[in-house]
Fold Probable membrane transporter protein.
Amino acid sequence: MQIYLPIAEVSVNAFLLLGLGGMVGVLSGMFGVGGGFLMTPLLFFIGIPPAVAVATEANQIVASSFSGVLAHLRRKTVDLRMGTVLLIGGLIGAALGVLLFNYLKSLGQVDLLVRLCYVVFLGVIGALMFVESLNAIRKTAKGTAMPTRKKHGLIHKLPFKMRFRVSGLYISVIPPLLVGLLVGVLAAIMGVGGGFIMVPAMIYLLGMPTKVVVGTSLFQIIFVTAFTTMLHATTNYTVDVVLAVLLLVGGVIGAQIGTRIGVRMKAEQLRILLAIMVLAVCGKLAFDLLVMPSELYSIGASEGH
């Protein structure tokens, strides 16, 4: 069933969009990521302009993350205090990111920037997560006890310490604020919740327990992506409501399924699966950038059959 998207100015299959939304919703519930790092490139692949994909996907992430957070709140695996600190940094970052996005859009460079950001970030994060997860699985298989994260180092010498009881931490608020800031900028420029950076940062940088990370990440993502969507809608007019609704419906249903699957899997298994997906999307985007430059097709894109 073909449906016309007024802002994107293309026709796509409605069931394809529902399916994509559902798939990304499952990932959201399983891994604590908004799923935008996968959905936005997938939207590029089916012909949605990058500026519209980024702004609209931020909207879809709000719904799938909200659905996932409700499931985690019932299990008491959300650190609301940590989530609030991350959120403050995230809102500042989102505002800065939208300003940068608008500036690059005025220069006509935003499509290339979005794609390059994806290739770089997904490549680095995916590779790091994959190597770490493989090591963790090997050690578990050999019966070697996983080394406990050291509670000292630069992060624990910083001032403005706060106690985060749910996470069992007493650390400075500066690192969570900076992580939130970076994720906010990425949400605005790349149309992502930033979970693919936030989840590893919360585990390895802040030392949070994996079971608390997923729900806390989703809690922060909801507000940052909602704020980003509002800024894009009012400054760029690139939010396609029809596209957003179809992705939303699929995403909300998928997130509930994903949360149930995630609870039954080990942390190392979840991380290696996420790493493989990140690297696969990165590879496809890099391939498209190198082999099929979109400029070749743009001249005749508006011609009818």
Remarks:
- Residues 147-152, 296-305 have pLDDT under 50 and may be disordered.
- The chain is about 70% helix and 5% strand.
- The first strand starts at residue 2 and ends at 5.
